[in-house]
Amino acid sequence: MNARTIAVWLSAAGLVMAVAGHASAHGLIGQRFFPATLAIDDPFVADELSLPTILHIRNRGSEDSPPTLQTDLSGEFSKRLSPDLGLSLGGTYTLLDPIPGKSVSGFDNMEVSLKYVFWKSAEHETLLSAGVSWDVGGTGSKKIGAESFDTVTPQLFFGKGLGDLPTAAEWLRPAALTGVVGLALPTRRFNQTLSLDDDGNVEITRELNAKTMQWGLSVQYNLQYLQSFVKDVGLPAPFNRMIPLVEFAMQTPIEGPHAGRTTGTINPGVIWFGRYCQLGIEAVIPANTMTGKNIGVLAQMHFYLDDIMPKIFTWTPFHGVLGPTQPQ
Amino acid sequence: MTRRALRVAVALVALVAPAWGHAFPDHSEPRVGHTLDAAPPAVRIWFDGAIEPVFSTLRVEDMDKRRMDRNDARVSPADSTLLEVSLPPLPAGRYQVFWSVVARDGHRTEGSFAFRVK
What we know:
The structure holds two protein chains of two kinds. Chain A is mainly β. Chain A has four helices and 19 strands. In chain A, strand 3 (48-59) and strand 4 form a beta hairpin. Chain B is mainly beta. Helices cover 13% and strands 39% of the residues of chain B. Chain B is built from one helix and eight strands. Chain B has one helix at residues 2-16; strands at 25-29, 35-36, 42-47, 57-62, 74-75, 82-86, 93-102, 108-117. In chain B, strand 5 and strand 6 (82-86) form a beta hairpin. Chains A and B meet through helix 1 and helix 2 of A and helix 1, strand 1 and strand 8 of B.
């Protein structure tokens, strides 16, 4: 790829951003806009594309392995099958750069997920959904540690805007919470490793693939909500379309030698949302020493396909063209 | 490769340029959540996109939920992003503005905000 080609690509990206303009909606309930969060899945079903999501972090070493610079490039396409049912396909390309050592890279396992919104209240800016995520074993590269077995994760999601707080607490009305809790169920109980000891005897090592609770929370403060529905404090663009937030992405094994030991990250950051896309960036901070000690960065560009071309991207097999993501 | 990139660029821009979306408020008079020294003659809300006159509504209520506007809400003929309704002289108090608009592509958004008159 020559310099001219790169310039054209960058110009295209710039043009798309420029034309994208400013605010509209994705993940609307009542007068509340919820963005797509970066580290945890949001409770909405939508027609959307996350491309790319970039994670860069330095993982600490252990007795067996050196510290590693990890870069993940991910993409996810989501499509509504009905007003409340959505399907997602996601993939990640991982680059691992040991220090010292030879770099390896490859695709992680493909992920397929299904989500259904079963309750929503526009008045209270609230919705609940349930889903199941399927990490398809064997579709990724063993070089980067992709598992050869499937993992199925039933999940529950919620979203709650605080717009129904009383006037005395109106400065909290722009705030909102989203959350998810799931139980990751590996379809293979143990990984077995065969090795020879010094006497030539075969040793079998069995490593448990533990069932793990995966849980997360996002705390958001929507400045567009503040300006439009609580108090116009005179924020200029682009700040009037920003959502400062903190995401907590955690996991806790419920069995095995690490049962009850929670690891995860706390991700403070900001999302800017426009009419047809959003941009987000977060710091990735280990929640405890068991998780690590280095801070990484997570960034994402996210396209609202249902707002970009509703007639094409919101077509569904049984409900026709749905239009943008909005509660009925 | 360069020609391919150009084609993709044109396609992406074409994808985004004619796009549709919801209309969201950009700013208003009176400003959201503000207290005024004198009663305003009208409530005006500017949106970030053109809105449909037929399906767009705007009303003002007092704290007892009595309708206080002149029931003449309209999209300005001179500016398709402006929704306005006129007001009689309002006594001091807190008022709630309720709006509901439909963007040119048929997507509805709605919301409300308060202002006060001293």
